Recover the amino acids of this structure.
């Protein structure tokens, strides 16, 4: 049974597309058939992160409007042969999406794939609703900053109100990914720690990702960071395992430095 | 520019990013004009009539509000 996972956030710029790309590659490396759909209509970005921008002919809106069939629009990843990608439209705006067409698309994808990852626009934009409506599971990406946590809280509320599952009395599984953690700031008490964020948002944790300069170079070259052995790559591999239902202990990214222990 | 990139050419990821972005944006900003070739030929004829130049470069560009046509005539 295919699972639809929506990757979302309250505000923009917290790393949704980076998370989507890396988790997609991670699941594909585990032998799962994965499709990553860029639902951020009008603001393509997932293509650049996956390094597939030159292969785009048709986009998700072309498929939904019947200008091409699904197979024509799906782009096979260069390295991960189990991974396919469906790009966002660059020229349309977000209001073009239609609930029934989105439903039809997702049903088509469910026939061929184990995991359907929807890279959603930030939470309060139109288009977000479409990405969340059919989700079985939502991963909320949050950075340990006041604005991000606040906006995430709002989005979690909207999610509960607007999903298909909620309408049928069920609940979308929701998890938190805390991204761009700076351990040295947390240790100094200058950045919200994991417990702070989780207590405020009151949702289960599925990933802790440290701030990692390798992510920048990975996006520059279009090769997701999960292919390297950098700290954030390990985090994304762990998230992948947890999505597959395995219990993986969380890394401690908040180690106290020698001086903090001395002068606490 | 560090001494290394001076010596070995710039093969850092930032330059890869710059190239990918330039390609992408040039593609996204170009405007599709169906009569482009005919127009270019006619402009070239006019330029040839008045000057000794035979080099005309034409480029389209677009931002959200305005589409432009850039005509560069190289005067010998």
């Amino acid at each position: 049974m295919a699972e639809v996972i929506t990757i979302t956030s309250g505000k923009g710029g917290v790393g949704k597309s980076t998370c989507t790309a890396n988790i997609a590659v991670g699941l594909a490396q585990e032998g799962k058939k994965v499709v990553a759909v860029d639902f951020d209509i009008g603001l393509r970005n997932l293509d650049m992160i996956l390094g597939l921008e030159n292969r785009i002919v048709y986009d998700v809106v072309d498929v939904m409007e019947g200008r091409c069939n699904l197979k024509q629009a799906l782009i096979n990843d260069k390295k991960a042969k189990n991974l396919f990608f469906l790009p966002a439209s660059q020229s349309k705006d977000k209001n073009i999406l239609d609930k029934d067409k989105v439903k039809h698309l997702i049903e088509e994808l469910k026939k061929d794939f184990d995991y359907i990852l929807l890279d959603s626009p930030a939470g309060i934009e139109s288009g977000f609703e479409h990405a969340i409506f059919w989700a079985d599971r939502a991963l909320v990406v949050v950075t340990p900053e006041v604005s991000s946590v606040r906006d995430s809280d709002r989005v979690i509320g909207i999610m509960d109100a607007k999903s298909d599952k909620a309408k049928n009395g069920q609940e979308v599984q929701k998890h938190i990914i805390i991204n761009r953690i700076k351990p040295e700031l947390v240790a100094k008490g200058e950045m919200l720690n994991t417990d702070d964020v989780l207590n405020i948002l009151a949702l289960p944790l599925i990933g802790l990702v440290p701030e990692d300069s390798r992510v920048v170079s990975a996006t520059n070259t279009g090769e997701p960071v999960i292919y390297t052995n950098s700290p954030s790559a390990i985090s994304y591999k762990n998230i992948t395992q947890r999505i597959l239902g395995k219990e993986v202990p969380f890394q401690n990214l908040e180690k106290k430095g020698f001086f903090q222990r001395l002068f606490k | 520019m560090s001494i290394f990139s001076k010596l070995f050419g710039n093969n850092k990821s930032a330059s890869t990013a710059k190239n990918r972005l330039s390609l992408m944006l040039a593609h996204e900003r170009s405007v599709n004009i169906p009569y482009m070739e005919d127009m270019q030929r006619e402009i070239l004829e006019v330029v040839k009539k008045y000057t000794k130049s035979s080099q005309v470069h034409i480029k389209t560009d677009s931002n959200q509000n305005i589409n432009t046509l850039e005509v560069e005539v190289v005067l010998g």
Remarks:
- The CA atoms of residues 27 and 61 of chain B lie 10 Å apart.
- Chain B touches chain A at residues 12-14, 16-17, 20, 23-24, 28 (CB under 8 Å).
- Residues 13-29 of chain B form the longest helix (17 residues).
